Each structure stands twice: as structure tokens, then as C-alpha cells.
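#struct-help
A.M.: can someone run this one for me? Single chain, 128 residues.
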Amino acid sequence: MNYAPVLISCIIFIELFFQLKTLKHINSLVETSKQAANAIMSPQLDDDKKEAIARQASLNISKELVFFLIKFSIIAGTLYSFYLLSIEFLPDSQEGFLNSFQSPLVIFILTITSISYILIRNVIRRKL
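D.P.: on it. C-alpha cells below:
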């Protein structure tokens, strides 16, 4: 089994995740949820103010969720396109490509490779 397509797909995912600034939307979802929960739990605010804050938070969460889903769909589509190209050029690897994601050894290698890639990427970005 050639593990190069699996490793390349992992790096493509990481790069798209960072380049599309997907983490910004995830952080915004979490922050908005925390603010809404704090406002609802606050004894200083009256019910009308709490409802207004909850409505605004709901709109913000919906907006950020749509952006996140669009970006996640772009990532998924790109990875699927890469998968189709991989099995087109390496037809023997189709079954191995899918089975490799179920192998604990490959999952471990992908995890170590991903962490290493992110660390090296951050070091290079700081130097530039």
C-alpha cells in the first residue's frame, strides 16, 4: 500500500483548514455561545434584555455556522476530488486508501505527521 495519497490528503486538509480561516468561525461560535449563556444567567439583566441578547446571539451563531459549513464543504469537496484523482492515477490503491483510515497504525502515523507538519509550519511562518 502506498501511503503517500493518505499523507498528502492529510496535509491538504490542514492547509485548507488554515487558509480558509475555519478556526475563526469555530472560535466565534464558542465565544458567542458563552456570551449568550452568561447573559441568560445574569441576575442583573431583565427578561426583555435577555431575550434580545439571545435573539442576537442566535443570529450570529447561525451566520457563523453557515460560513463554517460552506468552508467545511469546500474542504470536503477538495479532499474528495483528490481521492478521485488518486484512484484514477493509482487504481490499485482505491481499497487500500479507504481501509488505511481504519488502521490504528495509519491513524497514529497521520496524527504524528499532522502535529509535526503544523509545528514545522508555525516555525516557518514565524521566521518569514
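A.M.: thanks! The chain has five helices and no strands.
D.P.: also worth noting: Residues 120 and 126 are 10 Å apart (CA to CA).
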